[in-house]
Amino acid sequence: xxxxxxxxxxxxxxxxxxSKVTWPSRRETMISTLMxxxxxxxAAAFFFAADQLMGWAIGLILxxxx
Length: 66
Known about the structure:
Elements: H1 7-19, H2 26-64
């Protein structure tokens, strides 16, 4: 059974570990955010085009028998 950690000790450990984190600069954050938006836009455009193409193809196939 693991021993319980004192809440004060726990918070000290959390603070110590947080100080070890390499935080991104403002510029890195802005570039990453911009890249996420670009990739979301490209994925949305791709899936929209794929959906339209498949819808057109299925409509063409289903209307052949009519």
